[in-house]
Amino acid sequence: MNPTYRIVWLIARALFYTYxxxxxxxxxxxxxxxxxxxxxxxxxxxxxxxxxxxxxxxVNYLARKTLMDIxxxxxxxxxxxxxxxxxxxxxxxxxxAILDRLLGGGIILLFPEGTRTADGKLQAAKSGIGLxxxxxTAPVVPVRVRGxxxxxxxxxxxxxxxxxxxxxxxxxxxxxxxxxARTCPKPRLKEIYQQAADEIMAAIASLxxxxxxx
Length: 214
What we know:
about 210 residues, Glycerol-3-phosphate (1)-acyltransferase
Protein backbone atom coordinates (compact mmCIF):
# COMPACT_ATOMS: atom_id res chain seq x y z
CA MET A 1 0.00 0.00 0.00
CA ASN A 2 1.15 3.51 -0.74
CA PRO A 3 1.14 5.91 2.24
CA THR A 4 -2.14 7.60 1.24
CA TYR A 5 -4.00 4.33 0.87
CA ARG A 6 -2.52 3.02 4.14
CA ILE A 7 -3.72 6.08 6.08
CA VAL A 8 -7.27 5.83 4.71
CA TRP A 9 -7.24 2.05 5.32
CA LEU A 10 -6.23 2.56 8.96
CA ILE A 11 -8.90 5.22 9.49
CA ALA A 12 -11.58 2.94 8.02
CA ARG A 13 -10.52 0.06 10.27
CA ALA A 14 -10.50 2.30 13.35
CA LEU A 15 -14.01 3.58 12.61
CA PHE A 16 -15.27 0.07 11.93
CA TYR A 17 -14.03 -1.37 15.21
CA THR A 18 -14.82 1.61 17.44
CA TYR A 19 -17.67 3.78 16.18
CA UNK A 20 -19.56 0.92 14.49
CA UNK A 21 -18.51 -1.84 16.94
CA UNK A 22 -17.87 -3.98 13.87
CA UNK A 23 -16.77 -7.55 13.29
CA UNK A 24 -15.10 -9.10 10.26
CA UNK A 25 -15.68 -12.79 9.62
CA UNK A 26 -13.44 -14.92 7.38
CA UNK A 27 -11.39 -12.16 5.69
CA UNK A 28 -8.75 -14.87 5.16
CA UNK A 29 -10.97 -16.17 2.35
CA UNK A 30 -9.78 -13.27 0.18
CA UNK A 31 -6.74 -14.59 -1.76
CA UNK A 32 -3.47 -12.96 -0.75
CA UNK A 33 -2.36 -12.50 -4.36
CA UNK A 34 -3.70 -12.54 -7.89
CA UNK A 35 -6.86 -11.09 -9.41
CA UNK A 36 -10.03 -11.15 -7.30
CA UNK A 37 -13.55 -9.83 -7.76
CA UNK A 38 -15.25 -8.88 -4.51
CA UNK A 39 -19.04 -8.93 -4.91
CA UNK A 40 -21.09 -7.38 -2.12
CA UNK A 41 -24.58 -6.20 -1.35
CA UNK A 42 -24.84 -2.43 -1.29
CA UNK A 43 -26.66 -0.53 1.47
CA UNK A 44 -24.54 2.55 2.18
CA UNK A 45 -21.66 4.74 1.04
CA UNK A 46 -19.84 3.17 3.99
CA UNK A 47 -19.69 -0.19 2.24
CA UNK A 48 -16.61 0.25 -0.01
CA UNK A 49 -14.11 1.51 2.60
CA UNK A 50 -15.33 -0.92 5.28
CA UNK A 51 -15.17 -3.91 2.92
CA UNK A 52 -11.65 -3.00 1.79
CA UNK A 53 -10.45 -2.45 5.35
CA UNK A 54 -11.07 -6.08 6.27
CA UNK A 55 -7.83 -7.42 4.78
CA UNK A 56 -4.34 -6.24 3.92
CA UNK A 57 -4.55 -5.73 0.14
CA UNK A 58 -5.28 -2.74 -2.05
CA VAL A 59 -8.80 -2.73 -3.46
CA ASN A 60 -9.56 -1.00 -6.75
CA TYR A 61 -12.83 0.89 -6.29
CA LEU A 62 -14.98 2.31 -9.08
CA ALA A 63 -15.77 6.02 -9.34
CA ARG A 64 -17.19 8.27 -12.03
CA LYS A 65 -14.36 9.51 -14.21
CA THR A 66 -15.62 13.10 -13.91
CA LEU A 67 -14.54 13.01 -10.26
CA MET A 68 -10.96 12.52 -11.40
CA ASP A 69 -10.97 16.02 -12.89
CA ILE A 70 -11.62 17.73 -9.56
CA UNK A 71 -8.42 19.40 -8.32
CA UNK A 72 -6.78 17.70 -5.33
CA UNK A 73 -9.71 15.28 -4.91
CA UNK A 74 -8.93 13.64 -8.25
CA UNK A 75 -5.31 13.21 -7.23
CA UNK A 76 -6.43 11.61 -3.97
CA UNK A 77 -8.64 9.14 -5.85
CA UNK A 78 -5.70 8.12 -8.04
CA UNK A 79 -3.60 7.46 -4.94
CA UNK A 80 -6.44 5.28 -3.66
CA UNK A 81 -6.30 3.13 -6.83
CA UNK A 82 -9.75 4.22 -7.99
CA UNK A 83 -10.83 3.03 -11.43
CA UNK A 84 -12.45 5.85 -13.45
CA UNK A 85 -15.59 4.68 -15.25
CA UNK A 86 -18.72 6.12 -16.85
CA UNK A 87 -21.51 6.17 -14.26
CA UNK A 88 -21.64 2.67 -12.68
CA UNK A 89 -18.98 1.11 -14.90
CA UNK A 90 -21.16 0.38 -17.90
CA UNK A 91 -19.81 0.57 -21.42
CA UNK A 92 -16.76 -0.79 -23.17
CA UNK A 93 -14.27 1.69 -21.72
CA UNK A 94 -15.37 0.96 -18.16
CA UNK A 95 -15.22 -2.79 -18.70
CA UNK A 96 -11.75 -2.53 -20.22
CA ALA A 97 -10.51 -0.46 -17.26
CA ILE A 98 -11.85 -3.06 -14.82
CA LEU A 99 -10.39 -5.99 -16.75
CA ASP A 100 -7.02 -4.22 -17.00
CA ARG A 101 -6.83 -3.98 -13.20
CA LEU A 102 -7.73 -7.67 -12.90
CA LEU A 103 -5.15 -8.64 -15.53
CA GLY A 104 -2.62 -6.75 -13.44
CA GLY A 105 -3.42 -9.00 -10.48
CA GLY A 106 -5.59 -6.52 -8.60
CA ILE A 107 -8.81 -6.69 -6.61
CA ILE A 108 -11.98 -5.06 -7.91
CA LEU A 109 -15.03 -4.37 -5.73
CA LEU A 110 -18.39 -4.67 -7.55
CA PHE A 111 -21.99 -4.46 -6.39
CA PRO A 112 -24.29 -6.92 -8.23
CA GLU A 113 -27.37 -4.87 -7.32
CA GLY A 114 -25.95 -1.91 -9.21
CA THR A 115 -27.06 0.70 -6.68
CA ARG A 116 -27.71 1.16 -2.97
CA THR A 117 -30.83 -0.40 -1.52
CA ALA A 118 -33.66 1.97 -0.66
CA ASP A 119 -35.16 -0.17 2.12
CA GLY A 120 -32.28 -2.20 3.52
CA LYS A 121 -33.34 -5.40 1.72
CA LEU A 122 -31.30 -7.29 -0.85
CA GLN A 123 -32.13 -6.44 -4.45
CA ALA A 124 -32.03 -8.56 -7.60
CA ALA A 125 -28.69 -8.78 -9.34
CA LYS A 126 -28.11 -7.03 -12.65
CA SER A 127 -26.32 -8.78 -15.49
CA GLY A 128 -23.42 -6.31 -15.57
CA ILE A 129 -21.37 -8.13 -12.97
CA GLY A 130 -21.99 -11.38 -14.83
CA LEU A 131 -20.43 -9.91 -17.96
CA UNK A 132 -17.35 -8.81 -16.01
CA UNK A 133 -17.01 -12.18 -14.32
CA UNK A 134 -17.33 -14.15 -17.56
CA UNK A 135 -14.86 -11.91 -19.40
CA UNK A 136 -12.28 -12.35 -16.63
CA THR A 137 -10.58 -15.36 -15.08
CA ALA A 138 -10.69 -14.05 -11.51
CA PRO A 139 -12.34 -15.89 -8.62
CA VAL A 140 -15.33 -14.14 -7.08
CA VAL A 141 -15.49 -13.66 -3.31
CA PRO A 142 -19.06 -12.88 -2.17
CA VAL A 143 -19.37 -10.45 0.75
CA ARG A 144 -22.42 -9.91 2.96
CA VAL A 145 -22.64 -6.54 4.69
CA ARG A 146 -25.05 -6.03 7.57
CA GLY A 147 -25.79 -2.89 9.54
CA UNK A 148 -24.55 -0.16 7.19
CA UNK A 149 -28.10 0.69 6.08
CA UNK A 150 -29.07 1.32 9.70
CA UNK A 151 -25.81 3.17 10.30
CA UNK A 152 -25.87 5.44 7.25
CA UNK A 153 -28.67 4.73 4.78
CA UNK A 154 -29.15 6.96 1.76
CA UNK A 155 -31.71 9.21 3.53
CA UNK A 156 -29.52 9.82 6.58
CA UNK A 157 -27.53 13.01 7.10
CA UNK A 158 -24.91 11.63 9.48
CA UNK A 159 -23.62 8.10 10.26
CA UNK A 160 -25.00 6.60 13.45
CA UNK A 161 -23.07 4.24 15.79
CA UNK A 162 -24.91 1.06 14.77
CA UNK A 163 -23.26 -2.36 14.83
CA UNK A 164 -21.86 -3.45 11.45
CA UNK A 165 -20.75 -6.96 10.42
CA UNK A 166 -19.08 -8.26 7.28
CA UNK A 167 -18.88 -11.90 6.22
CA UNK A 168 -16.56 -12.94 3.39
CA UNK A 169 -17.59 -16.08 1.51
CA UNK A 170 -15.65 -18.88 -0.15
CA UNK A 171 -14.23 -17.95 -3.59
CA UNK A 172 -16.48 -18.92 -6.49
CA UNK A 173 -15.15 -20.34 -9.76
CA UNK A 174 -17.14 -19.88 -12.96
CA UNK A 175 -14.99 -22.08 -15.17
CA UNK A 176 -17.88 -24.00 -16.77
CA UNK A 177 -19.86 -20.89 -17.65
CA UNK A 178 -16.75 -19.14 -18.96
CA UNK A 179 -15.97 -22.07 -21.25
CA UNK A 180 -19.56 -22.22 -22.52
CA ALA A 181 -19.55 -18.49 -23.17
CA ARG A 182 -16.70 -18.84 -25.69
CA THR A 183 -18.82 -20.60 -28.29
CA CYS A 184 -22.49 -20.16 -27.33
CA PRO A 185 -24.96 -18.04 -29.38
CA LYS A 186 -25.71 -14.47 -28.25
CA PRO A 187 -29.11 -15.23 -26.67
CA ARG A 188 -27.48 -17.86 -24.45
CA LEU A 189 -24.59 -15.50 -23.69
CA LYS A 190 -27.00 -12.99 -22.17
CA GLU A 191 -28.50 -15.80 -20.10
CA ILE A 192 -25.03 -16.77 -18.88
CA TYR A 193 -24.31 -13.22 -17.72
CA GLN A 194 -27.54 -13.14 -15.74
CA GLN A 195 -27.02 -16.66 -14.42
CA ALA A 196 -23.59 -15.75 -13.08
CA ALA A 197 -25.01 -12.59 -11.49
CA ASP A 198 -27.87 -14.53 -9.88
CA GLU A 199 -25.51 -17.19 -8.51
CA ILE A 200 -23.32 -14.50 -6.96
CA MET A 201 -26.31 -12.76 -5.38
CA ALA A 202 -27.57 -16.08 -4.00
CA ALA A 203 -24.14 -16.69 -2.46
CA ILE A 204 -24.22 -13.24 -0.84
CA ALA A 205 -27.70 -13.88 0.55
CA SER A 206 -26.60 -17.21 2.04
CA LEU A 207 -23.77 -15.75 4.12
CA UNK A 208 -24.65 -15.70 7.81
CA UNK A 209 -22.85 -14.30 10.82
CA UNK A 210 -21.31 -17.28 12.67
CA UNK A 211 -22.80 -18.20 16.02
CA UNK A 212 -20.54 -17.26 18.91
CA UNK A 213 -19.28 -20.24 20.89
CA UNK A 214 -19.18 -20.55 24.64
